[in-house]
């Protein structure tokens, strides 16, 4: 029997507050006060656990890791079963293990914070029992742990600001980590309002929250309003404006048993073809580019292989379908495919030009454990029998920007399909000829930086893509996604909400076609360009897509300087403590040694 050394009520309530703050602060609820409350509860929990014995601190963080798991990420066990084919027991076991390692950043932050307090006390830099010191060190240590801890399905403290687009604008200057810093700085500081001696510091904390929100609101207020052109592509107002079509086919999850099922594959191809053609015919101006999601047509690819010999995943029907869509609509096509190479199977995003026939491919770099590859399989081969649905993909080596070109004078307008054409889709050679070879003076070049599925949750991957991208070229982000496995609206929105931050951080529009939702498109400020397509729906969206030039220095302060501002204001925060204590001690000395008056 475990006898608790102190009353557990407060740590329990603070743990609940933190967990529900995470849940309701992020999408789909996106309630900023909940995010602020979660940050406040995290600070109060750290303060409460500071004086508990080490053994019980570990118990509390084990409890907290599982509480966050079942409260915020409750959809993971069923997702593990669907993706990997694992049984219920294995899925839940992996879920609990995942909770310990994924949320280990919480005890790392706590002990980093606690060590800093002890160092300040030991060397008499500042009183370690000071509530002010605890507050100022808290956001520095917590965000630092956020940055150094590897995460499988990452969440960041900055995600708690998803409920306010104005507050989220801080990401353009400081990134997701800096946004988390300011949210924690302000929310934790609210605890000082109840302390008479530190009330002024609490007011400063509340003022910081308000200032970041007001500054972000001003950025939105002065943001560009996009005029609708009579035709596209158009380069007015410094933007490339493209007409885009976002397709969400809601294809059923691609289980291995469907790989050779002609009815399943035929339905997937027919639905994507119909939605792309119908969307092109019904919207004006017609699309310049069509976005298909990840696994829109699963299992297959359009690369005929080395030496012209078809590889195992090549599908002439899928190949013909992609060529036919570009030929009939006059639009470029971005789609996902699987292609077999000598060293393994690659998850790829492809851009097919309707005008030149040029094809460029990007290989997914960060693969999903237990979904796209099996960790430790070489050492423990028996794991394959437990996770039978897990694929054997290999990661890409470096990011490849997908280059496209659009003529200012459209040579092909969408036209209805004919039975004769449909019958010939299985023969891709029939549609291989491009529609024209325009000169560079007659059009505009653009590039797409792909992020496949949950790659969009990692800012570092975008930074790597920017290094390889061509500067001075109109650039956008694309995040083709397959969330059909998860069967959870909460997961779909959590995933989408995190991806939107990449647009704000790097000042680039982002298009996110998801096979089952949530599909959306946002501009460089994170503003929705159309109503998102909800999870589980079938539909498409016509979008006027503003595309910005990629500056040599970067399109935002964050893209230029990365996390350097976080290191700077963290250093200034720690330095300010020393000066504050110095002036306090000098003030006390003057008071103690000053002249006395006889009464």
Automatic annotation (TrEMBL):
GO terms for molecular function: N-acyltransferase activity. It comes from Leptospira fletcheri. Belongs to the CN hydrolase family. Apolipoprotein N-acyltransferase subfamily. It comes from the Bacteria. HAMAP family: Lnt (MF_01148). Residues 242-551 form the CN hydrolase domain. Keywords: Acyltransferase, Cell membrane, Lipoprotein, Membrane, Transferase, Transmembrane, Transmembrane helix. Catalyzes the phospholipid dependent N-acylation of the N-terminal cysteine of apolipoprotein, the last step in lipoprotein maturation. The keyword Ubl conjugation does not apply. Pathway: Protein modification; lipoprotein biosynthesis (N-acyl transfer). GO terms for cellular component: plasma membrane. It is a multi-pass membrane protein. GO terms for biological process: lipoprotein biosynthetic process. The chain crosses the membrane at residues 20-46, 58-76, 82-101, 131-150, 170-193, 200-221, 566-583. Its main location: membrane. It is found in: Cell membrane. The keyword Transferase applies. PROSITE patterns: CN_HYDROLASE. InterPro entries: Apolipo_AcylTrfase, C-N_Hydrolase, C-N_Hydrolase_sf. It is an enzyme of class 2 (transferase). Its EC number is 2.3.1.269. This is Apolipoprotein N-acyltransferase.
């Amino acid at each position: 029997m475990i006898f608790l050394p102190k009353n557990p009520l407060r740590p329990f309530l603070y743990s609940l507050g933190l967990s529900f703050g995470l849940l309701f602060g992020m999408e789909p609820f996106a309630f900023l006060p909940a995010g602020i409350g979660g940050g406040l509860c995290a600070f109060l929990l750290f303060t409460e656990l500071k004086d508990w014995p080490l053994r019980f601190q570990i118990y509390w963080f084990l409890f907290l890791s599982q509480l966050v798991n079942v409260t915020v990420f409750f959809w993971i066990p069923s997702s593990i079963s669907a993706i990997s084919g694992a049984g219920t027991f294995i899925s839940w076991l992996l879920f609990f293990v995942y909770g310990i390692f994924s949320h280990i950043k919480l005890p790392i932050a706590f002990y980093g914070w606690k060590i800093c307090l002890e160092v300040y006390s030991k060397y008499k830099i500042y009183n370690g029992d000071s509530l002010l010191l605890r507050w100022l060190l808290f956001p520095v240590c917590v965000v630092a742990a956020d940055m150094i801890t590897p995460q499988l399905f990452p969440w960041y403290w900055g995600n708690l600001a998803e409920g306010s687009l104005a507050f989220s604008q801080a990401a353009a200057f400081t990134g997701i980590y800096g946004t988390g810093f300011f949210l924690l700085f302000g929310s934790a500081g609210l605890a000082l309002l109840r302390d008479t001696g530190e009330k002024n510091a609490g007011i400063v904390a509340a003022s910081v929250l308000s200032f970041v929100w007001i500054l972000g609101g001003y950025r939105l207020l002065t943001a560009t309003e996009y005029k609708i052109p009579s035709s596209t592509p158009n380069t007015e107002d410094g933007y490339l404006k493209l007409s885009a079509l976002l397709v969400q086919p809601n294809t059923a999850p691609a289980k291995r048993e469907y790989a050779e099922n002609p009815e399943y594959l035929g339905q997937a191809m027919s639905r994507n073809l119909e939605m792309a053609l119908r969307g092109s015919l019904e919207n004006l101006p017609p699309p310049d580019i069509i976005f298909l999601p990840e696994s829109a047509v699963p299992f297959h690819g359009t690369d005929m292989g080395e030496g012209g010999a078809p590889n195992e995943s090549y599908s002439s029907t899928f190949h013909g379908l992609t060529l036919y869509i570009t030929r009939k609509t006059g639009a470029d096509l971005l789609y996902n495919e699987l292609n077999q190479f000598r060293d393994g199977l690659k998850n790829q995003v492809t851009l097919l030009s309707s005008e030149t026939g040029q094809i460029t491919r990007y290989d997914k770099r960060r693969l999903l454990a237990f979904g796209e590859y099996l960790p430790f399989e070489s050492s423990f081969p028996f794991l394959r029998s437990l996770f039978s649905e897990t694929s054997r993909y290999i990661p890409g080596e470096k990011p490849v920007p997908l280059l496209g070109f659009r003529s200012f004078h459209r040579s092909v307008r969408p036209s209805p399909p004919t039975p004769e054409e449909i019958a010939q889709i299985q023969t891709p050679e029939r549609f291989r000829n491009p529609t024209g070879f325009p000169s560079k003076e007659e059009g505009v070049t653009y590039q797409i930086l792909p992020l496949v599925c949950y790659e969009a949750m990692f800012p570092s991957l975008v930074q790597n893509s920017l290094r390889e991208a061509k500067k001075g070229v109109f650039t956008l982000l694309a995040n083709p996604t397959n969330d059909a496995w998860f069967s959870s609206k909460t997961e779909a929105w959590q995933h989408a909400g995190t991806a939107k931050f990449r647009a704000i951080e790097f000042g680039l529009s982002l298009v996110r076609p998801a096979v089952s939702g949530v599909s959306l498109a946002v501009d460089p400020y994170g503003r929705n360009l159309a109503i998102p397509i909800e999870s589980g729906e079938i539909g498409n969206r016509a979008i006027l897509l503003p595309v910005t030039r990629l500056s040599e220095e970067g399109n935002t302060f964050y893209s230029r300087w990365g996390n350097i501002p976080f290191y700077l204001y963290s250093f200034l925060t720690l330095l300010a403590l020393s000066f504050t204590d110095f002036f306090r001690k000098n003030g006390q000395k003057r008071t103690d040694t000053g002249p006395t008056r006889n009464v």
